[in-house]
Write a structure and sequence with these properties.
The chain is mostly helical. 54% of the residues lie in helices and 0% in strands. It has one helix and no strands. The protein has one helix at residues 12-25. It is flat, with a radius of gyration of 9 Å.
Length: 26
């Protein structure tokens, strides 16, 4: 599990997708 860092604006959309995929697998 990982936390989304607000300071990472560039990778925020990517992390959001990875977070959704990660949550969907579990």
């Amino acid at each position: 599990m990982f936390c989304l860092k607000p300071n990472q604006g560039k990778t925020k959309p990517q992390n959001q997708i990875l977070f959704l995929r990660y949550s969907g697998e579990n």
